[in-house]
Amino acid sequence: MTTIAIETPSQGGTTDDASLTASFARQPILNRDGMLCGYEIKVRTPALPAVEADQRVPQADPDTQPDALPGRAPTPGQRVARATVHGLLQGDVRGALTGHPAYVDVNRELLLDDAILRLPPERFMLELPLSLEVDDALTARVVYLHGRRYRFALDDVAQPNETFAKLLPYAEVVKIDVMRAPRALLPKLASVLKSAGKLLLASGVDTQADFETAHELGFDRFQGYYFAHAQSSATRRVSAPRHALLNLLQLLAGDPTVAQLEAELKLNPVLVMHLMKLANSSGLAVGHKVTTLRDAINATGTDRIARWTQLLLYADGRKVALEDDPLLQLAATRARFMELAIERMPEAGRDEADAAFLTGVFSFVDAVFGGSLEKTLNILTLSRPIQAAILHREGRLGLLLSAVEALEGGAWERVATLCERLAPLTVEEVAQMGLAAGAWAGVADRSAEGLERIED
């Protein structure tokens, strides 16, 4: 998950809108093949004073689209809704989505405010919670938005209720919480909804067993971090032999010569192929085509080769674009976040930035190799501070690793608590860096700082 904090633009003539800050959290959504097909955007808005929170938003006329009545200041709910829409339209959010659609939680205020019409319907899926009060005004609004090609998902379904029945005709997707839904009800519910032509999204899928159960029931989409655990590694094809990547990483850790690197790479034709493509496709070779392995090493540089090898550990060997590979995206995002965050810390140098990147990229290397995480870290000959951060969350690197994990889980209070120990970092800065890291990971294959596409 990656996040961003956006300040509200002044709208509706109020002068204190900028005091409202919205943050967004990005969570991956996978298809039946285990590839990324979207992200859910979790919205965190500031708490309004009780008096303001009790004010109701005027009901919108579904046949008109005025942003606000002339001369009337927006209500607190409208201000929050407009802050949310403004944030979702920012370039950083679009970059972090890496071309995938966004699933966005919406409430009554956001649905009824005409600011929602600024969201491009082809890029957003609006998630309707079953806690919505479905009256005539809300139904009319959903019908109107549906006619404008906005798409809806019923969110957080554990068991059908009256709201579910009223909103189902307008929903394209039904998101079922597989941890909360009665196990005996799941097969029947899935069968009925599939027969009705609905796409089924299983949320809370954090283990391989949960994924397999939902997959067998015909679910189309999956949300959760099951793919980042060791038990799922057996289902992934590797992009290169793991032992070859480990040997190369161990060699790179010792500041090798070009001749040593060339000799090691020649033992692994798959790695040679990837490196040659990297050198020729990423703009590193200026003015001529790289034709020899030695030229490729010189053009790329050991630092970039090291990062390429580290991330290649996580790449699925199927012919997929890197921005669609959930495990590699998670590893790259976490590593880049760690690097960006440490650079904001007092007295942090280049060596600590490199250590931060390594901490992030190897923090779930057991998802690839299985077995003992400590044993794998020892094989990689990582430094003691890096191992302590990964295994025990110790030191400054351990705190930053805990912070990015909290972001991935949407644990905002936990992020705030950790920021108190990571001064001068603030929750807003951590959120901004999380989103920037996600955008960086999404274009790594098209950047001289990143990777090539992984191909058979």
UniProtKB/TrEMBL annotation:
Gene3D superfamilies associated with the record: EAL domain, Hypothetical protein af1432
Signal peptide, first to last residue: none
Cross-referenced SMART domains: EAL (SM00052)
Protein name listed in UniProt: EAL domain-containing protein
Region (Disordered): 50-77
Pfam families: EAL, HDOD
Organism: Paraburkholderia sprentiae WSM5005
Residue ranges constituting the HDOD domain according to the UniProt record: 238-428
Superkingdom classification of source: Bacteria
